[in-house]
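Reproducibility note. Readers wishing to regenerate the assembly model reported in the main text can use the exact inputs given here. Chain order matters: entities are listed in the order in which they were concatenated for prediction.
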Amino acid sequence: MTVFVLDSSAVLSGKPITLSEGNMVTVPSVEKEVAKNEEDYRIFKYLMEKGLQVFIPSKEGVEVVENAAGKSGDMRRLSQVDKELLALAVDLKKKGDVCILTDDYSIQNVADFLGIRYEGVSQNGISKRFVWVYQCTGCKKVFKEYMSSCPVCGSPLKMVVKKRFTLSRKR
Ligand SMILES: [Zn+2]
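Running the prediction on these inputs yields the following structure tokens for the assembly.
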């Protein structure tokens, strides 16, 4: 079982839903980041329903990361959020397999330095595999935009992932 550590772009990609094996985790500062945008925060909460968990990294973990970033020359390029994500990965690696989902090169670089696995988010068109829509819980009509209730029947809407055509690539 792999624990996937998600940065903000990974949270917003919808990719974790395709993972049949593995847990999704992230840090409080990522939640804070996506909470700035209502639409983004809805995706975050949707993933929470699917099992996404938020953990605070340990102080020791942050120290390990700062040490590594100092040595690899990434210190100044790492934001507080980046450090926390890496620190959480350091913490969780003690317990098992960990993979950071991020497109950030500084995070990837420090992860390399620490011997932590990572995977890009936008590679393989992963971020394009899903579209988010809102479906009425009553009449099942699908809407592109969020509304507090269905304009047809008045039932609440819920967020659903709609697959875009097929997963085969277009050339
Ligand atoms: Zn309806």
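We highlight two features of this model. Residues 124-129, 164-171 have pLDDT under 50 and may be disordered. The two ends are 34 Å apart (CA to CA).
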